[in-house]
Amino acid sequence: xxxxxxxxxxxxxxxxxWPLALVAFVCVAAGLGGLAYxxxxxxxxxxxxxxxxxxxxxxxDAPEWLPxxxxxxxESSSALEEGTxxxxxxxxxxxxxxxxxxxxxxxxxxxxxxxxxxxTCGLKLRRPCGAVLSKVYYYLTDSDGVRLPxxxxxxxxxxFSVPMIxxxxxxxxxxxxxxxxxSVGAAVSVLKKLAASEGxxxxxxxxxxxxxxxxxxxxxxxxxxxxxxxxxxxxWGRAPGTKSVGERSVESKVAELSEIARKDSLKKYRYIDLxxxxxxxxxx
Length: 284
Fold this sequence. Notes:
The protein is of the alpha/beta class. It folds into 2 domains: 51-125, Ubiquitin-like (UB roll) (Roll), CATH 3.10.20.310; 128-283, Rossmann fold (3-Layer(aba) Sandwich). 28% of the residues lie in helices and 22% in strands. It contains 6 helices and 11 strands. The chain has helices at residues 20-47, 68-77, 91-100, 182-195, 200-203, 250-263; strands at 56-59, 105-114, 118-125, 128-134, 137-142, 164-166, 205-209, 224-228, 233-237, 269-273, 280-283. Strands 5-4-6-7-8-9-10-11 form an 8-stranded mixed beta sheet, covered by helices on one side. The chain has a 3-stranded mixed beta sheet with strand order 1-3-2, covered by helices on one side. The chain is elongated.
């Protein structure tokens, strides 16, 4: 009886020994896959960790005049929600946008992450130079005549001691916008000139009255009158940038007033009339 021949198997047989390059490729691919999975899991764990939740915002080179109340306002304006991860998408962009909404911030120079839980920033702030009295409230203004946040019933207040600006008219603008009334701009202009002088600290300016700007009350009187902490009146004259026959220059006024403040005693004078040269100084 003839035996049946076995048909060849159709099953594919692999070589018992794989090429070394193929083994290496498989190992590397498996390793990279494991690393990718592990990295993704690690990133998720880090992002949800309390150690990487933003805990504070630090402003570098904060100016000396900046009171704690304004620091708190700036922190609030950052629009940072409690518990936000430092890895949150668009975190820095959102903080920058929040700062720009604050009436205190003139420019956001930079915002950076400082791991594990801190944001640092560089801000250019608007510094108050006067407090405009309008009806019963005082409103801070900077050297550009822009209204700053806050409304105060008493002055000085909240860590600020800038001069009061009285006699101004017009409506109070929204925070971040300039005063439309020319008298505020005139007061700010005088204060800027004096603040840049050597005798500013010795002057002790308490207030600046612009109620007679343009001679609207009495053409024979000084348009602008400053008052010092010791009660001396300083008759400044017309606003900077305006002309009057015979009236001396702004630079000449500032120079003589600074000289008087540094080398003399303002306390002994009832008033000093700077409008014409030389200044008229009336003793008490």
